[in-house]
Write a structure and sequence with these properties.
23 strands, alpha+beta, four-stranded antiparallel sheet, 35% helix, five-stranded mixed sheet, 14% strand, 28 helices
Length: 831
């Protein structure tokens, strides 16, 4: 029942009448404590116990298991099969399609089973349809044969039954007269006794009327005589005076030489009989025969032009040929309880729009995607211009979407999809044509898709664009059909399919499998949007190659040409588009802070210099975004984190290359954190956002706050630090100190330099020791040079030497006491 769980019992008991209603009223008080809130399971259990007990269900199950077609037609047998199958849950489950087809096929009549069995049909509607067609063709064949014989319609021969034949034979034997004595036998030829006509010594008599032997004209039962030579009456063909007619060649499954010359679908060959060349027709059992060019070359066969034309059926150009077949998934529209009908007046259109609307409606009707409707529902339509100036028909389903129960089927994260492509070198991309139109709408929900136009009221038979839950339904179907190949060589996001491989040899098999799945499910792709055998591919706004992942230049072009925002709405649009690529921008949240503050509620919109600088810097960073590598699960990660009064940030690296950037602004309460807690919050932030990369493996974390290095050895911790420490203990990592003046690795990589990329994580402890020893490091791509510089003054030394040679100071130096450094001083001052 299409209602919520709490109302099922109420609606179900409302349908009871007469004796059933009296039964429920008397039963309700006996439920005791269980009857306080009667659930649907309780009601269903008691109802089945009263009106459909176990013994009856058992009989129905046995009847289903022993069901055979017998004298029933295929339609009757299928109806009986479906009726009884509901009593046997094993054959009604969603994954029981194979078992259901096997059971149905085993119950068919032997002649139908032999004809259908080789097809190996394992979709129940297709199997029933094939059986029905074969049965109708068989009846039509026997009808034609009987009409030719002049016997009228006759039922097809019944299946062979050994018991029936034995009974018939026994009945015939019972009616057979007993043998007579030899003296009682009378010869029909001479009339004598003691022998039969077939051993009669006298000449066998011949009737001159019918031309048959064994009787004379007086005994002939035939009253009319017809000549087979001239079709005249009164004589037979042997007595006919007309010229003899030429014998007729048999035409049953026969072709003359002249006919074979005009047939292009026949295979002819030359054979020799008694050294005489003859043309022979080779019967392969197929209407059309094909042979590969490689086989033709290997056999040394010649080629000749065909005189006729061969008609090949292909999908119509630019469109899907017909209504999609029955699929495992159908689109449904479940409404919020208590919803009223939604019906809106159609929008007014210009003359050119009306002309285009009429054309597109006719196209949809021809494809059988829509049909005329009498539904009380109705949504308006409008036309939207595409990039190529053509018009797209859109249905305004906003009011319907508001009252539709949302489908919570998860759409995959773009980052998770990209991570599956590590190591791939060859790519192919497939874009499905009118993807939503390849899923049927449930019959009971078609009326809800109705839309109103100037030319009538219509409703969709296939899933329309613009309705809520459509992406989730199609994503579910794509995951079903590609389930065995996901995360192996196929990535699917709604109607975009990416096939990836490490080598070209693997890609041949992977691409063949993916196309075969689409062929079996009758899903059609748009060739103009498909790309095959690429070294780098544009997918979901990113360019992916064997070297890594970068921002798609065609997508960033819209950001670089974005005009200065004039309102909060325009700022939100810009930040939404730029935020999609925030993993490519170091310190994105800090850069976007002036713009983000303008979007706060109650904030006056004032575009100042800080906003302009932030706006320009974001556009610059997007157009010069670095190449990010795809992470490898078997390689260690390195994390750099930092905190400031503006926000938190981090860089995830592997093998000295950037995997991703992450940042966020400080919350209100975090602005009051002391420096130690703020730096620890940065560590907590990066571990939380990159948990799916770091959890379960060893990695290193670097911070420019030295006290964090001794975090696990601290004896006194506040409540916040204790809470964070419990989370940090779940990870296997080393917390290291990284001086701020040396923390240029992420910045160097963001500008695509290679000097700092050569520094490995394990070298930073050595660098810290160099710093403590006052060693100077000079970097180069291949080496590191160390140096030490000591600075001291030569001024005092110069004074000392001058005092020794000055005449005025020589006597004073002898008479007075000299300082330790032999420099003459007065009090504490140098003379």
């Amino acid at each position: 029942m299409q209602c919520i769980e709490d109302q099922k019992v109420r609606f179900g008991t409302h349908q009871l009448s007469e004796e059933a209603d009296d039964w429920w009223v008397s039963l309700l008080p006996t439920l005791g404590q269980e009857g306080a809130v009667v659930t649907w399971a309780v009601f269903r259990r008691e109802f089945l116990r009263r009106y459909f007990p176990e013994d009856v269900r058992g009989k129905k199950e046995i009847e289903f298991l022993e069901l055979k077609q017998g004298n029933m037609s295929v339609t009757e047998y299928a109806a009986k099969f479906v009726e009884l199958a509901k009593f046997y849950p094993h054959y009604t489950a969603e994954n029981a399609e194979f078992s259901r087809c096997i059971k149905f096929e085993n119950g068919l009549r032997p002649d139908i089973k032999r004809a259908i069995g080789y097809q190996q049909l394992r979709v129940f509607p297709d199997l029933v349809n094939s059986c029905r067609i074969y049965e109708e063709d068989t009846k039509a064949h026997y009808k034609i044969v009987n009409e030719r014989k002049g016997k009228g319609q006759q039922s097809p021969p019944k299946p062979y039954s050994a018991h029936a034949d034995k009974g018939k034979q026994r009945m015939v034997d019972d009616r057979r007269p007993k043998k007579k004595d030899a003296t009682e036998i009378v010869c029909f030829n001479c009339g004598g006794k003691g022998h039969k006509s077939n051993v009669c010594p006298k000449e066998i008599k011949k009737c001159v009327r019918c031309g048959k032997k064994g009787h004379i004209v007086a005994d002939c039962k035939r009253t009319d005589i017809l000549c087979f030579n001239c079709n005249g009456e009164g004589h037979i063909s042997s007595q006919c005076t007309q010229p003899k007619r030429a014998p007729t060649t048999g035409r049953v499954f026969a072709l003359t030489g002249t006919q074979t010359e005009n047939e292009d679908c026949l295979i002819r060959g030359t054979c020799y009989i008694n050294n005489t060349p003859l043309v022979a027709i080779i019967d392969t059992g197929a209407i059309h025969c094909f042979i590969a060019f490689d086989c033709v070359s290997a056999l040394g066969l010649g080629l000749s032009d065909m005189n006729g034309e061969m008609v090949v059926e292909t999908p119509a150009k630019g469109s899907i040929p017909d209504v999609p077949p029955e699929r495992e998934v159908e689109f449904s529209i479940d409404l919020v309880p208590g919803t009223k009908l939604v019906s809106m007046a159609p929008y007014r259109m210009s003359a050119s729009e009306l002309s285009e609307l009429k054309k597109q409606l006719e196209d949809l009707l021809e494809k059988k995607f829509v049909r005329p409707s009498v539904s009380p529902w109705g949504a308006p339509v409008l036309l939207v211009k595409k990039k190529d100036d053509s018009m797209r028909l859109c249905i305004d389903y906003r009011q319907l979407n508001k009252v539709t129960v949302k489908n919570r089927y998860p759409l995959p994260r773009i980052d998770d999809l990209m991570d599956q492509l590590v190591g791939a070198r060859v790519f192919s991309k497939i874009d499905l044509r009118s993807s939503y139109h390849q899923i049927k709408v449930k019959d009971e929900d078609m009326q809800k898709t109705a839309f109103k136009t100037r030319y009538g009221h219509y409703e969709y038979k296939v899933m329309p664009f613009g309705v809520t839950n459509a992406p989730e339904v199609f994503m579910e179907y794509m995951n079903r059909i590609f389930h065995a190949f996901l995360d192996r060589f196929v990535v699917v996001f709604i109607d975009d399919i990416l096939i990836y491989s490490k080598t070209e040899e693997e890609h041949v098999e992977h691409l063949k499998i993916a196309l075969q799945v689409l062929k079996e499910k009758k899903l059609y792709a748009k060739l103009s949007k498909c790309e095959f055998w690429l070294k780098e591919v544009s997918f979901l706004g990113h360019v992916i190659s064997g070297d890594g992942i970068v921002v798609d230049p065609s997508k960033v072009e819209a950001v670089s040409q974005w005009e200065t925002p004039k309102s909060v709405t325009e700022i939100r649009s810009f930040l939404g588009l730029a935020g999609y690529y925030r993993r490519f921008i170091e310190g994105f949240s800090k850069l976007a802070l002036p713009l983000t503050q303008l979007t706060c509620k109650g904030k006056t919109f004032v575009w100042d210099v800080h906003c302009e600088n932030s706006f320009g810097e974001l556009k610059k960073r997007l157009t010069t975004a670095p190449v990010l590598i795809l992470p490898k699960s078997d390689e260690p990660f390195v994390v750099y984190c930092d905190a400031s009064k503006l926000g938190l940030g981090g860089v995830l690296m592997q093998e000295g290359k950037v995997v991703a950037y992450a940042s966020r602004q400080l919350r209100v309460h975090e602005k009051n954190y002391p420096t130690h807690d703020l730096e620890l919050a940065a560590v907590f932030f990066v571990l939380k956002i990159w948990r799916h990369y770091l959890y379960g493996s060893r990695f290193e974390v670097f911070s420019d706050h030295k006290s964090l290095k001794y975090l696990f050895d601290q004896k006194e911790l506040n409540m916040r630090q204790r809470r964070w420490l419990e989370l940090l203990k779940d990870y296997d990592f080393g917390l290291n100190y990284h001086p701020g003046k040396v923390n240029v690795v992420a910045d160097a990589l963001s500008r695509k330099t290679l000097h700092m990329s050569a520094i490995m994580v394990r070298e930073f402890e050595l660098l810290e020791q160099f710093r403590d020893m006052s060693l100077v490091c000079e970097w180069s791509p291949q080496s590191v040079k160390l140096g030490m510089l000591k600075i001291h003054s030569e001024f005092l030394k110069s004074i000392k030497e001058a005092q020794k040679v000055d005449v005025k100071f020589v006597d004073l130096l002898v008479a007075r006491d000299q300082t330790e450094d032999s420099i003459l001083k007065s009090m504490t001052k140098v003379c």
